[in-house]
Every structure is written in C-alpha cells, then in structure tokens.
Amino acid sequence: MPRYHGEPPGVRVYTVCDESKYLVVKNVPALGCGDELLRLFSTYGQIEECKPMDAEDCEPFTDVYWIKFHQVDNARFAKRKLDEFVFLGNRLQVSYAPHFESLSDTKEKLEGRRNEVLARLKPRSSNASAAYGHGPSARDQSLGLQQREFGDSHYTARSGGSASMTHVSSDKEYFPLESMNQTVCLVREKLNEIQSSTDNSEVQSSKRPRVDNRRRI
C-alpha cells in the first residue's frame, strides 16, 4: 500500500528467515525498462540474475521483476533504500522472496547470520572480561609481580641479606698469560699515580695562605 506524503513510515521488522537474497519488485512501469532497473539495483551489490515475471499478477501497465543478489547483505541494503523509491513516475514495491531459496541458500544464509552475531558479541565479551580483571593483561601483570618478588627474595637469600656486590681484590691475576697480567699491573700503577697526584693537589688548594698582620716601620 503506498504511503502518502508526510505520513510517517511504519516500523517493519524482518527475521533471518524472512530476509533473502531474492527480491520481487512490483509496480515497475511497463515501458521495457528492465536494463534501467538492473542498473539501479546493481549499485547496491552484485546481481546474479534479473528477469521479468510474466505469470505474476500486477496492476495494469506495470510489470513485476525477479532479482537475485549474490549476497543477502546486498539484497537487504537494496530493499531498504529502494522500497517505495520513485522509478520513472511509479513507486517501487520491493519485497523479499525466501520461497525461491534452495536448501543450500538457506543454509548459507543461516550460517552467515550466525557468524555475524558471533563477531558482534566477541568484542563485548573481551571488554567485559578486561573490566572485571579476568583479561590476559591482568593475569600477566600478576605473574610478573610474583616473579619479580621471587627474584628479589632469592637474590637477598644468596647474598646473605645485603644488597651490596662483592669486589675482587686488585692483587688477583685475572688472565692466564703473564704478559696480560703485567699490562694490567702497569695500568693500575698509572691510575694510582694519577689518583695520588689529584689528592695532593686538592690538599694544597685547601690550605689558606697566611696573612702578615705585622706593622711595618
């Protein structure tokens, strides 16, 4: 039934069983405009077949067309946009035709809707688990904290309760070759000389010069 100008649209709800990739388009002007109708509907998705239905009852000077889309989503989008669309002066009447579906078409449609619902529910479940602290991030943080505490206690127990590191004596020979040990000794002596000269300069700079307060005649 056509809707008058200014009349609010009625609420229409379709289940997955009502929807289909097969559409029946009524109230098409009988002007041989099948190609124009095909181009109009093909803007909303790939169309596998489009043909007139001569045996279908219709109003005078109008035709009925049968359209098969490649996917149900495209057919749903086309029906929502083109139902009651003005085409060459007539308002198109687009409706689903699930009775043309085969068993494989129905199975594919139900499986696609199932995957769509699962994809929509998956982000919500992951966000809810993260909000309640059951997500992988909270578990990883707790494990990392336990490992860090265990490592600190293990290091403290091995070091005898002190966190200071042990130093190797400077008189110990580090390398198996004598030449390398001699080089280390020379470097150590040079460093000691530099350190002693630095200490002497600091001591001399710390001494204040005496001020002669005696009166001169």
TrEMBL record:
Q: Which organism is it from?
A: Coffea arabica (Arabian coffee)
What GO cellular component entries does it have? Answer: nucleoplasm; spliceosomal complex
GO MF terms held by the record: RNA binding
- Per the record's keyword annotation, is RNA-binding included, yes or no? yes
Record keywords: mRNA processing, mRNA splicing, RNA-binding, Spliceosome
Q: What is the lineage of its organism?
A: Eukaryota, Viridiplantae, Streptophyta, Embryophyta, Tracheophyta
Q: Name one Pfam family in it.
A: RRM_1
The protein's matches in InterPro entries, at most eight in alphabetical order, are given as:
Nucleotide-bd_a/b_plait_sf (IPR012677), RBD_domain_sf (IPR035979), RBM48 (IPR039599), RBM48_RRM (IPR034264), RRM_dom (IPR000504)
Name the job this protein performs: As a component of the minor spliceosome, involved in the splicing of U12-type introns in pre-mRNAs.
Locate the compositionally biased regions of type Polar residues.
195-206
Ranges for the region named Disordered are 195-217
Question: Is the keyword RNA-binding assigned to this protein?
Answer: yes
Q: Which CDD domains match?
A: RRM_RBM48
Mind telling me what this protein is named? Answer: RNA-binding protein 48
Per the record, the gene is LOC113703511
Q: Which SUPFAM superfamilies match?
A: RNA-binding domain, RBD
GO biological-process terms attached to the record: mRNA processing; RNA splicing
Q: Which residues form the RRM domain?
A: 21-99
